Amino acid sequence: MVKEDGCLYLVGTPIGNLEDISLRAVRILSEVDLIACEDTRETLKLLNHLGISKKMISYQKYSENEKKSYLIDLVEAGNKLALVSDAGMPGISDPGEILVREAWDRGVRVEVIPGPSAVISGLVISGLSTSNFYFHGFLPKGKVKEREGVVTSLKDMRATLIFYITPHSVEKDLALLLKILGNRNGAIAREITKFYEEVIRGTLEELLQIVGSRTLKGEMILIIDGNQETAKEMTLEEQYKLYQIMLGSGVKSKEAIKTISADYNVSKNKLYEYILGKKEE
Q1: Is the pTM of this model over 0.85?
Q2: Number of domains within the chain
Q3: Is residue 141 domain-shared with residue 167, that is, in the same domain?
Q4: 223: closest CA among 242, 206, 200?
Q5: Alpha carbon distance 262, 158 (integer Å)
Q6: Which of 43, 65, 230, 275 is the most buried (most CB within 10 A)?
């Protein structure tokens, strides 16, 4: 049964411009008993700007599992807890997913206070298709084969592709994406809502030339056109091979089946049955 007193609030915070904080977010941050934040120093800047004094606790990626039970214990005891990341919505490539799952598993109340999102902001300002999109996050930093496998798994998607990139990885990532995806249209949206906000549009070749000729700083979103070719009719064996590639890149089984079905207009049930048959072989 859901508890009535305590509550875990997922609070979206500005991704740059502090004026983007919502009125509801300000109220919730003022009312809660405790704020769990990715970096207490970053959250303190926001709280000082808002004139809010509140007890904070660090909640980072590496300590999520260690602290999740303690924090939900506090909510079960009737406390109101706000979870924030350094910027944007908690849980999107930031700490939060594990804590939210723990809250639902233990029956405590969870509410979301929507706020700015770098992913959505980058997509809508890019000028590329917004009707169907896939957010991947950061490409892996590992071995070449692992990185190539991840990008290959995305090659046939018709959805617009969205990635997080860093100043240190942008040239390397663009070169890999160009090699495997081909010379598609794309855009780099950087420092969104900040003073140096910029959107650079062009083909992947053009973007690669630009980043090779100048130094790009700050947080960046890379948006790339999906596969614009007419989708071919795939056999179940071809669907299964793509499914295996997606699993290998970290996509969950249910999401992989759903994506393949949507992108290739094939039956989810037939693919699922085919996968079960393969497991029994």
Answers
A1: no
A2: 3
A3: yes
A4: 200
A5: 9
A6: 43
Confirm whether 1 is domain-assigned. Answer: no
How many residues appear in the chain? Answer: 281
- Distance in angstroms (rounded) separating the CA atoms of residues 8 and 223: 32
The whole domain housing 76 covers: 7-116
| Same domain flag for 187 and 108 | no
Contact 59, 11 (CB under 8 A): no
Average pLDDT over residues 202-226: 94
Does 263 map to a domain?
yes
Strand partners, 113: 11
Residues 111 and 82 in one domain: yes
User: Tokens representing 9?
Assistant: 């609030």
Which residues lie across from 200 on neighbouring strands?
188
Per-residue tokens: 147: 């990185």
Where are the alpha helices (H) located in the chain, listed in sequence order? 23-31, 40-50, 64-76, 97-105, 118-126, 144-154, 170-181, 204-213, 236-248, 253-264, 268-280
Contact 239, 271 (CB under 8 A): yes
CA 132/CA 158 separation, integer angstroms: 8
Q: Which of 87, 116, 145 is the last residue of a domain?
A: 116
Same domain, yes or no, for 110 and 125? Answer: no
Distance CA 26, CA 4 (A): 22
Helix (H, G, I), strand (E, B) or coil at 93: coil
pLDDT per position as a tens digit, 104-154: 999 999 999 999 999 999 999 999 999 899 999 999 887 888 999 999 999
Q: What CATH number has the domain bearing residue 201?
A: 3.30.950.10
**Angstrom distance (rounded) from CA 42 to CA 4:** 31
